[in-house]
Structures are given as C-alpha cells and as structure tokens.
Amino acid sequence: MTLRVLAAMSGGVDSAVAAARVAEAGHDVTGVHLALSKNPQSYRTGARGCCTVEDSHDARRAADVIGIPFYVWDMSEEFDREVVQDFVAEYGAGNTPNPCLRCNEKIKFEAVLDRAVALGFDAVATGHHVRKVDGRLVRSVDAAKDQSYVLGVLTSEQVGHAVFPLGDCTKEEVRAEAERRGLSVADKPDSHDICFIADGDTAGFLNRRLGERPGEILDEEGNVLGAHRGAHAFTVGQRKGLGLGGAPNPRYVLSIEPVDNTVTVGPREALLVDGITGVRPVWSGAEPPAEPVDCHVQLRAHGEVYRATVRQRDGADGPELVVRLAEPAAGVASGQAVVVYDGDRGDTVLGSATISATSRSAVSA
C-alpha cells in the first residue's frame, strides 16, 4: 500500500537516508525542514546536522537528489514555548531537563504530526535510530546510536503514525549508503550540543534568562561550605565547578532546593538511590501496571540500563510511576525521563515518565 509520508529532514545524514529509503520503497514522500528560530543567527552555526543556519540548505539539496518536494515549516513559536522556555523553567525549578527529548515529544511528533495528519499525510518519517515492531518501539541494532530513550515519551498513537527506516542498520552503513546515493551530507558530523545555546555556555544562557541569584552551598548536615551565583547552574551528580577549593575528598551535588536557593553536596555514595517516582507516565507499548512488574529502566540518554520493578499508582496530582531498582544508581536527576523496557530482553519500550523524586530506602549504608 502506498502511503503519503512526510519526511522530517533536519539537514543531517540520518534524515536524508531515511527519506531516500521511504521514497525508494514507493511511497509518496514530501520533505520538510523545521525552522526553529525566528533569528537563526542566535542559534549555533556550522555544519552539525541539527538546527544550524546551514541545515535547511543541506536538507533541500538532499531532497533534490532524492527527487521529492521540499518545504520549510516555521515552528519557531512552538519551539520557543515548548522547548526553550520549558528548559529555562525546569532549571529554575531545580530540575535537569532534556531539551532533545522535549523537542521530539512536543515538536517533531506532536506539532508536526498534528499538522501532517491535518494535511492528509499518513505518517511522519524520521532518521532516528530505532525500530518499530508490532507497533512498539524497539532498540536499534546499533546500540551506540540507539535513540529509543529520547522517543520513549511518545504515545501509542504517535508511534502508530511514525516510520523509522534506519533501525535495522549501523551509522557506518547509513553514511556509506548516503555516499552511494550521492548525498552531500554523507560525512556531515553528528550534532551533540544544545542547538539554541550558540556558544555552548549553558550556565551563561541560564544566567541571562534567570538572572544571578547568590545562595549557599551546604553539606548534608546543613553546614555552609561556600557560595554560588545561581542554583540553576548545577545538576545532581555534578562534581566540577563547585568552587569549594581542593577538598581532600571529592564532593558531588546531591540536591538543589530552588525555594531557599541552596545546593547540597556530599560524597559519591550519598548519590546512590534505588527508588524513583515519575509523573506524567505514558504507556506506548503496554497497559499501565497496577501491580509491580519486572522490567528494565534507562535513566538518561545512552546511560546504563537497570533491572527494576515498576507499577503505576494514583498520586495527588495524577498517575505516578513507582520504580524500585534492583541495584542502586547514582546521579539520578529530577526532570530527566525514566524509560521502561520489557523485562525479558530490555529492548522494547513499554512506557516512560518524568522523574520527580528519588529515595534511598533500601540502599545499604
């Protein structure tokens, strides 16, 4: 069956090859590049493969080579509201957000998919390294490039309208295919930085948005060890940049309290947690479990995978995900996503939630 497919083309090699594969399969493909800033000079420049000034030109050239129509959609207002402002607000609340995950959730698969369906498209194709098997997200065959974590926030309906052509190959194979197809982005570097922070200075960006707000750095007993210029410059698990001098024992950020503007630090073992609570759970590959079920969870992009039990319960502000890790994890930050994978192989996404709290109830001293 021939589908009308909207291919999201970032200007990088992955999305170009994904669009080419869908077109070669005989589908009716239209390429679209998302303009995410009304002032492109305020974003990062250079050929990096995501959101740069040059990327729309690279995407258009790739569409020309593939032989598909190409358009640019202005998503700058949605991006600023849903990603940039959310990023600043989350740091201001003492959390550590993942802007790429938020962009996938709110821009690439909510705003874009809604518009695509309204225009009569059947599906949206992207260059994410992930597979879709029986309507569920499954890890890519290239473990190093797997992006199932940053897509774990998608709903089952969004997954149903998505096409991921690259999940069955490695990044090296994608680049080789791009070269064979004559795509000029074959050797284009991957993007790793936050696109809307042009100079890479996250602390400086947040200072300009939130303002400097001096406060105290405390130890676990509440003793004042030093001062900071803004709690938003820290994240749980951070070791460098604390400004505490050459202490004999390394200290790590244990918690951030935005109300009284304090940062608490301590030894690495104090970072260990085995209990996690998540809010706004989404289940794309399973029904919400009312009783604890064995599974795997991932707590950050490209992070370690942990055996765990999870269940969903009713919280004061809506459903909550309750996670109990089989082994403790360190540096688990509120604002990040906990993505749940099936218990047998740990490769199929079941659902996700946003981490809101952690506990150490079963962690040995």
Summarize the model shown.
The protein has helices at 13-24, 55-66, 76-92, 99-118, 148-151, 156-160, 171-180, 202-210; strands at 4-8, 28-35, 70-74, 123-125, 130-133, 136-139, 162-163, 215-218, 224-228, 252-257, 262-266, 273-283, 293-298, 305-315, 318-329, 337-341, 349-359. It is of the alpha/beta class and 365 residues long.
Mean pLDDT: 91
Q: What pattern of helices and strands is seen along the backbone? A: EHEHEHHEEEHHEHHEEEEEEEEEE
CATH class of the largest domain: Alpha Beta
Strand order of the largest sheet: 12-15-14-13-16-17
Low-confidence stretches: none
Number of E-type strands = 17
Largest sheet: 6 strands, antiparallel, barrel
Number of helical segments with 4 or more residues: 8
The rough form would be described as: globular
Looking at the structure, the CATH topology of the largest domain is Rossmann fold
Return the structural class.
Answer: alpha/beta
Family: Belongs to the MnmA/TRMU family.
Subcellular location: Cytoplasm
Keywords: ATP-binding, Cytoplasm, Disulfide bond, Nucleotide-binding, RNA-binding, Transferase, tRNA processing, tRNA-binding
Main location: cytoplasm
